[in-house]
Automatic annotation (TrEMBL):
NCBIfam families given in the database record: cydB
Example of a GO MF term: metal ion binding
Transmembrane regions: 6-35, 77-101, 122-141, 161-185, 197-219, 225-244, 251-272, 300-323
Pfam families reported for this sequence: Cyt_bd_oxida_II (PF02322)
Primary location group: membrane
InterPro entries cross-referenced by the UniProt entry: Cyt-d_oxidase_su2
Keywords noted in UniProt: Cell membrane, Electron transport, Heme, Iron, Membrane, Metal-binding, Transmembrane, Transmembrane helix, Transport
Any one Gene Ontology cellular component term annotated for this protein: plasma membrane
Protein name: Cytochrome d ubiquinol oxidase subunit II
UniProt family annotation: Belongs to the cytochrome ubiquinol oxidase subunit 2 family.
Membrane topology of this protein: Multi-pass membrane protein
Biological process annotations from GO: aerobic electron transport chain
Compartments reported by the entry: Cell membrane
Organism encoding this protein: Antrihabitans cavernicola
Amino acid sequence: MGIHEAWFVVIAFLFLGYFVLEGFDFGVGMLMPILGRGAGSEKRRRVVLNTIGPVWDGNEVWLITALGALFAAFPEWYATLLSGFYLPFLVLIVSLILRVCAIEYRGKIDDPVWRARCDAGIGIGSWIPAVLWGVVLANLIRGVAVDSDKQVTGGLLDLFSPYALLGGLTTALLFALHGAVFIALKTADEVRVDAGKLAVSLAVPAVVVTGAWALWTQLAYGKGWTWIALGLVLAALAIALPLARAGREGWAFGATAAAVASLVVLVFGSMFPNVLPSTIDSAFDLTIHNASSSAYTLRIMSWAALFTAPVVIGYQAWTYWVFRQRISMAHIPPPIGLRTR
């Protein structure tokens, strides 16, 4: 494996980590209004939100690292992608900022109206990225109108083809299922029971939609070996359903995480060796070679990553271990935010 191929794998791994970890964060935010209903709704919502409380900001670091590595290793890919997808990425980033602010400031003011607005921000900031990431991934595989100057010449609507829209629905359903299983894994009492039931309800549409998009991807753009990734996606989702129904949340979460990871492998495997295909002319495709930094730059980056990556991954693993216990409504203290009156 050459240095260019190695860094393509690194970029793929960073996005894999981001989607596996941030995927259940999105799912929690998407499902909080559903699982937060009923008696003691405010405590239920706080239980659901606290499942990701210690880890959600650390999960977002994977995206920052992935984009930083993309900029350094493949600057032409970074420049063309972020300029050509300017509006979708702008909406995505604004929604992520909205979610951050809503999570951080939800408990600062003890007022139902304030909390309702923050909950809406959490929901919007979870649903929009969950859909848009699928649209972006679909266009990375399908390609866009890249010209000889490495500029995207197509309009905004060109990004929302039927294939891309199905990709957005796929990631939304998959992240929702991933989040439901995670909530069931991290909670106790009735919240755990309701999350488990919701996971079972989400499993069938997630399997159907994800299977349809993954099969479309494989038949239209896949390689011979990516059939393995497709099989792993379908097998992991099929296993997650009976595990969730049986209350084996830990194994079910492992299955949904494997499904998300396998889907990312299918996406990047279908792209390779392209990083952004051109629908105008294949001669204008951005590849791991014509979009990369120099070999010397990539070698320097490799040494830096070799020493820093294990520390970062080890620290995050330790964080998950420390906060591994389940949360129940009995653990939720009274609100301590400022009162408006």
